[in-house]
Amino acid sequence: MTAKLTDAERKADLAPLLANGWTKTKGRDAIEKTYEFKDFVAAFGFMTRAALWAEKLNHHPEWFNVYKTVQVTLSTHDAGGLTMLDVKLARKMDALA
Amino acid sequence: MTAKLTDAERKADLAPLLANGWTKTKGRDAIEKTYEFKDFVAAFGFMTRAALWAEKLNHHPEWFNVYKTVQVTLSTHDAGGLTMLDVKLARKMDALA
Known about the structure:
homodimer, 97 residues, alpha+beta, Gyrase A, domain 2, 3 helices, 4 strands, 44% helix, globular
């Protein structure tokens, strides 16, 4: 679960995220996405729902919020790069947004 | 309320915040502070309580969270710098943290 993604997993699991608004972070084995909402209540509502899932997965995002914008970066510190935990949290965030 | 802080207000209202862990942001008329909590639940709990106050004040922070750390930057976009809204939100955040 916390092993870095294999080449096969990158093709099967990461590629669909990259086709859905996630981008590779420069200089790190990480992915990032910027979500835009209607207003702060919608943005923070998303963050709250995502926070509950993050805590449940015991895997937490790096994220920046200003008003209706939420910038998320995902990577697995313990593994030194992207793992299936990041894929799971990214999918969940896309479903919540 | 949304006028930039006067020199007198900076002495009376901003100075106590700068003595309490807030610092001036480089290159902007803004203040910032990094809060450290016990864990993600504590950090996001703080953010949730602060978010309710931010919405109530109709004044929102720029903030970055990773696990138990929350970095906050406050400034008033409409005024192009620090106003009493930032002072109020900073005081409230310190009280909540």
